[in-house]
Amino acid sequence: MQTILVIDDDESLRDTIGLMLEKEGFRPILAADGASGLDQAAAARPNLILVDLRMPGLSGVDVCKRLRASGSAIPVIVLSAVGDEIDKVLLLEIGADDYVVKPFGTRELLARIRARLRRASQGAETVLAFSDVEVDLDQRQVRRSGSETRLTRAEFNLLAFFLQNPGRALSRDVILNSVWGYESFPNTRTVDAHVVRLRQKLEPEPETPRHFLTMHGVGYRFLP
After folding, report:
1. Model's pTM, two decimal places?
2. Of 178, 176, 190, 172, nearest to 71 (Cα)?
3. Using an 8 Å Cβ cutoff, are 195 and 149 in contact?
4. Span 94-131, pLDDT tens digits
5. H or E, element range at 7
6. Which residue has the higher pLDDT, 174 or 12?
7. Cα(149)–Cα(107) distance, rounded to whole angstroms?
8. What is the pLDDT of residue 187?
9. Where are the alpha helices (DSSP H) in the chain?
10. What is the pLDDT, as a whole number, of residue 82?
11. pLDDT at 121
12. What is the spatial distance between Cα 169 and Cα 213, in angstroms, rounded to a whole number?
């Protein structure tokens, strides 16, 4: 079952969309504001996000920008009201994939959602590998030299984030916000501890890592 995150401060509309998605066989997750929506996006890793353009606090524009800054490639459809100045150039700038103008019909919204999900599934790899490690992102399974290696939920989420951002310099704050959610922990020591565990479980020589590299003064970089 595919998961869709709905971020909208309009409770009535949010609930209506949630019910519609349930009837169509999706699993909806509902968030009333941008901050909680980002937390849900990091924790649940939905297949697609619907986000309202105009919200108090973190707007839809802010949500899109932060998602893309974190390295997330989750498809995003923006919900905009009639009169909002939004065009394809703005969509590209904020990292959204499509938009639907309110009020919209159920059939139109569902068509946009299914089109984006199809495009995402066509280009997405669900099984990734490095060294003697194979990671199935859909099944959340990790195998090393053919044998299953058990990871905690947080360890797997961190590994998946690294795999989806190969070669990129990632600060501890970006990792913390993307994997655990905004303001979930008071400091970045949690990131360091989990990187150590990934090294112990997945590196050929944990004391001299080849894949999960420390970038002094920056954070970490994953090299497949």
Report:
1. 0.56
2. 178
3. no
4. 778 888 888 888 888 999 899 888 877 765 567 888 99
5. strand 3-7
6. 12
7. 43
8. 67
9. 11-23, 34-44, 60-69, 88-94, 106-123, 153-163, 172-175, 189-202
10. 64
11. 72
12. 10
